[in-house]
Amino acid sequence: MSAPCCAGQLACCCGTAACSLCCKCCPKIKQSTSTRFMYALYFILVTLICCIMMSRTVATEMKAHIPFYKHICEGIKAGETCEKLVGYSAVYRVSFGMASFFFIFFLLTIKINNSKSCRAYIHNGFWFIKLLVLAAMCSGAFFIPDQDTFLNAWRYVGAGGGFLFIVIQLILLVEFAHKWNKNWTAGTTHNKLWYGLLALGTLILYSVAVGAVILMAVFYTRSEGCTYNKILLGVNGGLCILISLVAISPCVQSRQPHSSLLQSGVISCYVMYLTFSSLSSKPPETILDENHKNITICVPDFSQGLHRDENLVTGLGTALLFCCILYSCLTSTTRASSEALRGIYATPETEVARCCFCCAPDGDADTEEHVEERGGQTVIYDEKRGTVYSYAYFHFVFFLASLYVMMTVTHWFNYEGAEIEKFFSGTWSIFWIKMVSCWVCVLLYLWTLVAPLCCPTRQFSV
């Protein structure tokens, strides 16, 4: 490692410099991107620790292979078998430390409009010091007095924050649907081929939604029993038809001429995904067969074979879930998305049609105002004129994501006996959370369609 690179990494860890890799062949990185990447790494690190704490397999392996395991546990006052460091209560404490870390930075970064202030320097640098602070806060949570009261109170805070994080995800999904339609519709004024793309996208989305209904009807229902599944499939399928009809109704078209089946197709696909996820999370139903043996019904036969290697399924499923959470955190903190949550949208005149419209540069992010090379990866300081994303909103979303991870890993309200190996086992609390999320998503989308009719004096732009 070269001397300039060492100096750069020292400035990154203990100073205000942006983080970068030591390999000079790496592509350029923007200061705003490197900052968000580092906070995401902190989030991933603590999330992995929470998953390990909820794993029965890891606890068993540690007990079997670590010498003097019992003496070590007693030495750190964690119990004879380190029971204080595993289970839902340990995850609650660690998540409290991570959530507090992001909430403090949320308060610290309120109303920062440029990267030259002292608070902005703290946000963009001092990474090693902040890692120590995060570790201290997660560790310190284990010394909170009156643990029972704390855990009961923190559970309700976590549930509230987790639900709010879900709502933010749903709002941004609705915003994504409107943004997609508006961006591609803007291209039709210059090139009629965009009409073909709009039609193709709509056809694909509705084909997926209809195919999902058919598959779920085949695999999750049967002639006898499965009443819940039949009702929910019927209700959610009917909701998809309802939002499609409302989107193209004359009264909505008169106030929102850009409303089309593309947006309702996106929402319909997401509704079907949540329906599938809900039905997969529902506790299995059992009946007696002709031999008076209990058999499981209302689930696909092949799913029972998939759960035989539960560690593999849990590992892959958990990794996919948290990748989605991380993606939601990072994409929801762009300037455009944070403004969308406040009802502020780009005007149609500023839209430039793109196939990959969601990857469009945000604000002045492409402006290379100052480039710094420290013997390693080149850093572009892209926030000299102003911040390209809201620092406070960024930390607030990660605060909510910390609570959502805590509740998800501990099976929400079925925390007693929860284990990461049982992450995909059916529970009623997870089933209803997903199902209610589905209905909230439909209501949010319907509100964006009927709001201009209910409040004709207000200006709405979606």
Topology:
Elements: H1 3-14, E1 29-30, H2 31-53, H3 56-65, H4 69-75, H5 88-108, H6 118-124, H7 127-140, H8 147-187, H9 193-219, H10 227-247, H11 250-255, H12 261-281, E2 285-288, E3 294-297, H13 301-306, H14 310-331, H15 335-340, E4 370-372, E5 379-381, H16 391-409, H17 428-454
Parallel strand pairs: 1-5
Antiparallel strand pairs: 2-3, 4-5
Helix pairs in contact: 2-5, 2-16, 5-7, 5-16, 8-9, 8-12, 8-16, 8-17, 9-12, 10-12, 10-17, 12-17, 14-16
How would you characterize this protein structure?
- The chain crosses the membrane at residues 37-59, 90-110, 122-144, 156-174, 194-219, 231-248, 260-279, 312-330, 391-413, 433-455.
- With 462 residues, this protein is mainly α.
- The protein is built from 17 helices and 5 strands.
- It has helices at 3-14, 31-53, 56-65, 69-75, 88-108, 118-124, 127-140, 147-187, 193-219, 227-247, 250-255, 261-281, 301-306, 310-331, 335-340, 391-409, 428-454, and strands at 29-30, 285-288, 294-297, 370-372, 379-381.
- The strands form 2 sheets. The chain has a 3-stranded mixed β-sheet with strand order 1-5-4. Strands 2-3 form a two-stranded antiparallel sheet.
- The longest helix has 41 residues, at 147-187.
- The radius of gyration is 25 Å and the shape is flat.
- It starts with a helix and ends in an 8-residue tail after the last helix.
